[in-house]
Amino acid sequence: MDIREISLGSLEEEVKSQNVLLPIEQSAIWAKYQATISGRTPWGALAASVDGSDVAVCSFLDFQTHGYHYLNAVHGPIWFHEPTEDEEEELAEALADYLHKHDRRQVFIRMALVHDIAESHPALSTVPYDHTVIIDVTGGDDAILSRMKPRGRRDVRKALRESPAVCADETEAATKSFQDYYDVMVETGKRDGFVPAPISDYEDMIRLLGPEHCRVYAGRVDGKVATWSIVTISGKRAVRYYGASLNEYMRQHVTDKLVYFECCDLAKNKGIESYDMMGIGSDFAPSLLGLNEFKCKFTKETAEVAPSRDIPVRRGFYALLVKARDVVVARRKRAEDEAERKHRAELEKAHAEKAKHESEKLAEADAENAEKKSEESGK
User: Mean pLDDT in the chain?
Assistant: First the structure.
């Protein structure tokens, strides 16, 4: 398998000529947006060919973190056919050889692999997924609803009847000021246990991708943003990249109403045919299982996707990174275990003190009763 450098423009043209999906993360416009994020630099694109014919193309970002570099091909490579395990192994080897010759800074390549090939390792520092929910938004509003699971149809219909949220495409408003939306994301982060990216990341994403590739949807209650999403668009595929909602409105089905509104609007006004909810949990990604109850109700089937894995280029350095990661994980586990032990000890102490207090009260009551009986018998 031969590797050669190509431009991002050539990558997009070739993908279009092959009539395959171009993930937005593999596009030139995405590279432009990523260049605004500290530690990320568009690296370029490569094509892989066999006997003079291209079989795959891929755009890479240079990620610099903790003093080392690695290449990240988000949702890449783009194959022009379904690859076999041998073909993925051959591509991984060819890419590693290419980097040995052209960019020895890179410690590893992170790329999407259908197969768990021998050269690959679980991604070091991210949570990849191998299943997602893709909603078919063709055929009109009723058809979209009919293809949901019974619970999805029930929740959406309930939302349409009872939810006070007013849903709209608010891309223009969010481009002017993102603060109201960001405040909702901050509350979502506190609820779900994560720290949102700086507000500038969202603002740059909306501004640099532009309305052709990025839309902001929101549901408002009494004029207040209650739930919102950022949706990316590439060809006829949309992806629900970010979403957030306020705690006080979660029981009012505001997000159910917004997701259905997004499906209908994307199909009617943006020419979208499929809507990717961007990742759910599985045996491969158990930490994401909490997403399944909400996302899976919008369609009867889930879709398999190629998860991100690491291909070491500088094997010794990568092995050290794995050891360092394992040390950090073990240290975190010990800290969590110690916190849990202290919590259990505090609960046991509280229970013991409560039991002691109740026992003393019973003993005191028994003594009072005995004294009363003694007085009565003396009379």
Answer: 93
Cβ contact 133:343 at 8 Å: no
What tens digit of pLDDT does each residue of 98-114 get? 999 999 999 999 999 99
Residue 186 has pLDDT above 80, yes or no: yes
Q: 240-276 burial, b if ≥16 CB within 10 A, otherwise e?
A: bbbbbbbeebeebbbbbbbbbbbbbbbbeebebebbb
Say what the pTM is: 0.85
For the beta carbon of residue 46, count every other beta carbon within 10 angstroms: 25
CATH number, span 134-278:
3.40.630.30
**C-beta separation of 309 from 113 below 8 A:** yes
Contact 59, 8 (CB under 8 A): yes
Instruction: Enumerate the domain spans of the chain.
Output: 2-124+308-314, 134-278
pLDDT at 378 over 70: no
Paired strand residues for 2: 49
Is domain 2-124+308-314 given the CATH code 3.40.50.2000 in the classification?
Answer: no
As a whole number of angstroms, the distance between CA 116 and CA 89 comes to 9
Does the pLDDT of residue 379 top 70, yes or no?
no
